[in-house]
Amino acid sequence: MKNVVCIDLGGTKALAARVDGVNLSAPIRRAVPYQGEKEQINAFVLELVRSTIDEHSQGIAIGVPSMVEMQSGRVLETVNIPSWHNVALQQLLQTHFELPVVVHNDANCFAMGEYCYGGHQVQNLVGVCLGTGLGAGIVIDGTLYSGKHAAAGEFGSFPYRDGIIEHYTSGQFFKRRGLEGGEQALLAQQGDAHAKALFAELGTHIGYALAQVMLAFDPDKVVLGGSVARSYSLFAETMRHALSNQAHPILVEALQISPGQLEYAPLLGAYALFERHTHLPHKEVYCA
User: Fold this and answer.
1) What is the pLDDT of residues 77-125, one digit of tens each?
2) Could you tell me how many helices (H) and strands (E) the chain has, helices first?
3) Average confidence (pLDDT) over 212-237
4) For residues 102 and 94, what is the distance between their CA atoms, to the nearest angstrom?
5) How far, in whole angstroms, is CA 139 from its chain's centroid?
6) pLDDT digit string (tens) for 5-44?
7) Domain covering 3-105: architecture
8) Distance separating alpha carbons of residues 252 and 141, to the nearest angstrom
9) What backbone phi and psi angles, to 5 degrees, belong to 92?
10) pLDDT of 254 above 70
11) Cα dihedral angle (18, 274, 149, 82), rounded to 10 degrees?
């Protein structure tokens, strides 16, 4: 059956699968050699595609945690993979596999996956990825807005306290304290007071971040994805409280917030973006 090879490349791990509509092959999971040289990262991506592609594959769609020059599919900068910048990724993949290629920001893929397949039934949605860093994909009136360099929604890079927002709202919140987020989540669920306090503080920072999203775009809904969002119940209360201190109560009460509904939203979103980019000449993205 015809399919598209879809890749979700994160700051520390990657997923790849063949996607046909909402049907996925069993995803391949790999640790990203994020401290490697540019050539090593390129080789990693090529091997990931080779491990996934089959004779029915009609194209490749990849979401990357990067600024992307949309017209050429060039990766300009990747904060959490320091060596991976100025990479002609679309050209690289087209040369090796002789298939059409779409390169997009990973948060945009997440947002489109949730918007198209998550059953949210809203017109304006922001998908916020809380993983290695913080990024967001913005869907306005059913259309993805990515900006010229797929940099729209990079709220994690906004200045905050002694650094930037993603230092306090992503896995970096724990890493900067010498801790591992997954371990702290387990401890918090078991009632550990220190771990519970950490997630309460995390929620306060996330609330501040979401206030920036809300005041910038006033969406119907914010959907949270990424590894940190799996612990939503541990920080939801303080997140909402912090958000309520940042904006008018009418805005806060109207805003829906929920964890993502799909296990593989970025892969499905990459597929949706491939379908729309390859069929719409002006790079407009709509969901039926």
Assistant:
1) 998 899 999 999 999 999 999 999 999 999 999 999 999 999 999 999 9
2) 10, 15
3) 97
4) 10
5) 13
6) 999 999 899 999 999 987 899 999 999 999 999 999 999 9
7) 2-Layer Sandwich (3.30)
8) 20
9) -60, -45
10) yes
11) 10
80-88 long-range CB contacts below 8 Å, 24 or more apart? Answer: 80/11, 80/12, 80/34, 80/132, 80/133, 81/11, 81/32, 81/34, 81/41, 82/34, 82/35, 83/36, 83/37, 83/38, 83/40, 83/41, 84/38, 84/41, 85/38, 87/38, 87/41, 87/42
Amino acid residing at 215 = L
Q: Tell whether domain 120-259 is in CATH 1.10.340.30.
A: no
pLDDT-derived band at 278 (thresholds 50, 70, 90) equals confident
Do residues 255 and 9 lie in contact, with contact meaning Cβ atoms separated by under 8 Å? no
Tell me which residue of 118, 125, 117 sits closest to 143, measured CA to CA. Answer: 125
Band (279; pLDDT cuts 50, 70, 90)? low
What pTM was computed for the model?
A: 0.92
Residues 6+ apart with CB under 8 A from 133: 11, 65, 79, 80, 156, 166, 170, 171, 172
Check for a shared fold between 3-105 and 120-259.
Answer: yes
Question: What is the widest separation between alpha-carbon atoms in the chain?
Answer: 55
- d(C-alpha 74, C-alpha 57), whole Å: 22
| Among the listed residues 222, 197, 206, 227, the one whose alpha carbon sits nearest the alpha carbon of residue 120 | 222
